[in-house]
Amino acid sequence: MALLKIVTYPDAVGILRTRCKPVMKVTRETRRLISNMIETMRHAAGLGLAAPQVGVGQRLFVYDVGEGPEALINPEIVQAGEEIEVATEGCLSIPRLQGDVPRHKEIQVTGLNRAGKPVRLPAQNLLARVFQHEIDHLNGVLFVDRAVPDSLHWLTEEEEEERVQVGRRRSVEAPEPEAVSAA
Ligand code: NI
After folding, report:
1. Is the dihedral of CA 134, 136, 138, 141 positive or negative?
2. Is residue 106 annotated as a catalytic residue, yes or no?
3. Which of 77, 107, 110, 175 is the most buried (most CB within 10 A)?
4. Do the Cβ atoms of 99 and 88 come closer than 8 Å?
């Protein structure tokens, strides 16, 4: 496995604002990309990472909210509950910026898992939030587009370092990360 470079805004505005293309076939190369994205996500203490964030314009993302890493390929939100929840988010492609983002509390998504098998996943709370954040990435949408404007704020370098350290420890030790996510 290898660590990939996470591209950031505004340098990589082209790929980060692209509507990504469906994955036509899950190949060995797709699985290698997924493995590398999972390693990269862990290293950065993220809860999710979408292909355009590593410069690949394909509709897939990886995630891990404490139950082990998985991938979702060609994801679609097929159902969204009415209840909206506002919580703080960050993004690995906009380092240190955080803001409060309204998201559906409950959704159902379909897609293919990393083995290429069709899945339909119910998701609530943090997992639902991560899915919505990552699916937005595949459509060229960033969390700042949806954040409550007054809520946007920059973390200091120390706070960002703490986030990464806590995130790394949490990823091996604790199943329930708090609602501040970087994806
Ligand atoms: Ni993100």
Report:
1. negative
2. no
3. 107
4. yes
Residue for token digits 């604790």?
174
Q: Measure the CA–CA gap between 55 and 4, rounded to whole angstroms.
A: 9
Q: Rounded to two decimals, what is the model's pTM? A: 0.91
Distance of alpha carbon 49 from alpha carbon 41, whole angstroms? 6
Each residue's pLDDT, cut to its tens digit, for the chain (183 residues) gives 899 999 999 999 999 999 999 999 999 999 999 999 999 999 999 999 999 999 999 999 999 999 999 999 999 999 999 999 999 999 999 999 999 999 999 999 999 999 999 999 999 999 999 999 999 999 999 999 999 999 999 999 998 888 888 877 655 544 444 445 567
Ligand 1 centre and the CA of 90: distance in Å?
7
Q: Which one of the listed residues 134, 158, 173, 176 is annotated catalytic?
A: 134
Ligand 1 center–CA 93 separation, angstroms: 6
Token representation of residue 39: 């390693």
Ligand 1 midpoint to CA 5 (Å): 14
Domain architecture of the chain: domains with CATH: 13-173 (3.90.45.10)
